[in-house]
Amino acid sequence: MSTTPLALEERRAGRLAIVADYVELTKPKIAVMLLTAVAVSGCVATWGQPDLLRLFHAIVGTALVAASSCVWNQWIERRFDLLMKRTRDRPLPSGRIAGNSAALFGVVLGSVGVSYLAATVGWLVAAIGAATWLLYVVVYTPMKRTSPWNTAVGAVAGALPLLMGWAAMGTPFDLRAAALFAILFFWQFPHFMAIAWIYRKDYAQAGMQMLPVVDPTGLRAGRQAIGAALALTLVSVVPFLNAPLDGAPWCIAAALFLGVAQLLVAVRFSVRRDDKSARRLLWASLIYLPAMLGVLLAFPIL
Ligand code: HEM
Ligand SMILES: CC(C)=CCC/C(C)=C/CC/C(C)=C/COP(=O)(O)OP(=O)(O)O
């Protein structure tokens, strides 16, 4: 049997498409932001002088465990994802990847990830990784269908990886570690209340109890976005207090500027409660976090 260049090309494209589907299962865009935050946490824990090899191991291990959690989250939700426009073309609901293959992929990623963390950066980091996995997959994912408090649980799971980056450096947890956790915890409310509003019809159709589903006026979602954006602004100055570094006033000013800017966008969303203001708030959140991480990173070198 002869193989034409065209047939070879088609086979290659097919293989690439399968790889792309497996990558999509791991929610790579969220992972990039999350792993950036983990790296910054390692830098803050060591005043800008992390052990680069340990940081590398923490990032690789966290990436594997986080990827596993996202695969399992999508495996559990494969039938509900089919009911939502935003998610119905994902690899599992669309049938491009079989359920068993995804489940196996998730098991391998998770067990390799936790073992890798334990072997390279220690049991504490591996234990936080395993606890985060359980919280996201076993508690948050089913809770999306039972209570609007699911977002608070998801936000704990989203913020815990920061403590993995911190603990990987061997630095004991202190007020600054708590402040980093709080920054990422509170950030997720404006971020997600905007998303939950934009996709409220999707979520309602799939039986997801998000705040704009149980309160279609959007008043509660707006209030949560404002409250959390305010708390975030206040807590974002804590890492720069009591530090004998010249850059502290600049970093405090930058953190307040970013926080107040996002707060104003949250207020606008809360007042208008329309798709345009929600999209603006989502964008503001996606700009705020990398910018705030940049300020944290710059602090020791200013
Ligand atoms: C309660 C917690 C969270 C929920 C429920 C949530 C949910 C979502 C959803 C549904 C999207 C897709 C929006 C769209 O398709 O238009 C999204 C986007 C995004 N999220 Fe989150 N998220 C949470 C926490 C986080 C965390 C902790 C990070 C990283 C630090 C993160 C980073 C991102 C990024 C970078 C995007 C834009 C990329 C994309 O469109 O997929 N999120 N989030
Ligand atoms: C180390 C480790 C295990 C880290 C896991 C961290 C992690 C992935 C947190 C995710 C935060 C979160 C709630 C995302 C949205 O999921 P969703 O199910 O609401 O999003 P979807 O509707 O798009 O599937």
TrEMBL record:
Subcellular location(s) per record: Cell membrane
Alphabetized CDD domains for the sequence: PT_UbiA_Cox10 (cd13957)
Entry's transmembrane regions: 30-49, 55-76, 97-117, 123-142, 149-169, 175-200, 221-241, 247-269, 281-301
Superkingdom of source: Bacteria
Annotated metabolic or biological route of this protein: Porphyrin-containing compound metabolism; heme O biosynthesis; heme O from protoheme: step 1/1
Keyword vocabulary terms for this entry: Cell membrane, Heme biosynthesis, Membrane, Transferase, Transmembrane, Transmembrane helix
CC per GO annotation: plasma membrane
PROSITE patterns assigned: UBIA
Gene Ontology molecular function: protoheme IX farnesyltransferase activity
Membrane topology: Multi-pass membrane protein
EC number assigned by the record: 2.5.1.141
Family per record: Belongs to the UbiA prenyltransferase family. Protoheme IX farnesyltransferase subfamily.
UniProt function note: Converts heme B (protoheme IX) to heme O by substitution of the vinyl group on carbon 2 of heme B porphyrin ring with a hydroxyethyl farnesyl side group.
Miscellaneous note of the record: Carbon 2 of the heme B porphyrin ring is defined according to the Fischer nomenclature.
Protein name: Protoheme IX farnesyltransferase
